[in-house]
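Entry:
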Amino acid sequence: QVQLVESGGGLVQAGGSLRLSCAASGRAFSFERMAWFRQAPGTAREFVASIKWSAGWTSYATSVKGRFTISKDNVKNTVFLQMNSLKPEDTGVYYCGGAMVGGEYGAWGQGTQVTVSS
């Protein structure tokens, strides 16, 4: 059983930065890839960024490309999301999830709130 715990959210002004962390405990090594998603009130959860656990390949949503960076620490089983040049539309609850080979993302954490004021 894998547990994911997100942290690092908060309130920031537009143009500011935040760094989110997602700590995995349990059989995190079984994930092929991990990702960050976000959900604003009244909207569906949307993909933000992903990283392959072994190779480190990354993928980003168009809306965050060039502003956000996903990275990982294999020793600490932790995934990070560095968010720069934040915009009010980045506001939402940010979740991390893991996926097995060929599987969909799951094992969601409780999420961390990010609020960007204009």
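The mean pLDDT is 94.
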